[in-house]
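for the recovery benchmark. tokens below, seq after
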């Protein structure tokens, strides 16, 4: 009888150990996210809402796990800065061609043809100002990817950020060196993150050599391509590393990124992280 009680006690203690251990790891991950690591809502909370829309941005703003909200900026034919990812309108709206082919009034008449369109029929392509307002009210860091901008549009972007007091509180990202250089021609202080395509090989020494030409630069590779050596080389040259494209719920990879010294990452949903 005593032996059975000992076995039962051992089982109960084992269950408690597993439960408390899991709770501790969860709390530890939460603590990291809340204090030093910048988890960014990719085009808002785009796994649950239409990407790059006000409802998606607002949902990301209400999440305690997200510290930043990422979006993509383009310019209409008449110079209005709007938020849209794709190079063309064909897949995501009922229009064709590029954002730059249309005036702002025409863009606002477009219907967003996305998987959530029946649930959110009134969502339209938003303007940059409204997104920035959500970030300001929620205390989130804006991450703005440069997509299709003229020199005039770039100047307007920098002017808007400056006028609204986003100095040192806003991050610019881009895959394109010409856009990076155009932005730096208008502003030298905002952090700019240079991204590389996940399917294209790169030389980290060449990347660092390029980034060192400018102040306040960050390297931003894919969350599944970045290596410890990449982070080590960048940090030796005073360059931080953030990533893009963490898969939804991939806590294992999130912990790996944090352990390597990566500073942040985008994800379409914070659930499970």
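predicted aa per position
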């Amino acid at each position: 009888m005593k032996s059975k009680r000992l076995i039962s006690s051992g089982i109960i203690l084992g269950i408690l150990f597993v439960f408390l251990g899991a709770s501790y790891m969860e709390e530890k991950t939460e603590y990291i996210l809340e204090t030093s690591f910048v988890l960014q809502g990719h085009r808002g909370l785009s796994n649950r809402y239409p990407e790059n829309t006000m409802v998606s941005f607002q949902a990301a703003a209400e999440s305690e796990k997200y510290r930043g909200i990422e979006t993509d900026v383009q310019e209409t034919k008449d110079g209005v800065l709007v938020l849209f990812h794709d190079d063309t309108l064909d897949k995501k709206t009922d229009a064709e061609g590029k954002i730059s082919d249309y005036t702002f009034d025409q863009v606002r008449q477009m219907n967003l043809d996305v998987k959530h369109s029946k649930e959110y029929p009134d969502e339209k392509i938003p303007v940059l100002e409204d997104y920035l307002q959500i970030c300001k009210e929620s205390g989130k860091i804006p991450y703005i990817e440069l997509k299709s901008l003229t020199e005039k549009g770039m100047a307007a972007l920098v002017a808007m950020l400056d006028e609204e007091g986003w100095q040192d509180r806003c991050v610019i990202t881009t895959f394109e060196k010409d856009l990076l250089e155009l932005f730096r021609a208008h502003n030298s202080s905002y952090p700019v993150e240079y991204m590389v395509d996940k399917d294209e090989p790169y030389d980290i020494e060449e990347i660092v050599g390029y980034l060192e030409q400018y102040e306040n630069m960050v390297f931003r590779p894919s969350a599944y391509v970045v290596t410890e050596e990449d982070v080590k080389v960048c940090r030796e040259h005073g360059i931080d590393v953030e990533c893009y494209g963490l898969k939804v719920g991939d806590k294992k990879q999130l912990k790996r990124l944090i352990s390597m010294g990566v500073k942040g990452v985008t994800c379409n949903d914070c659930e499970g992280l």
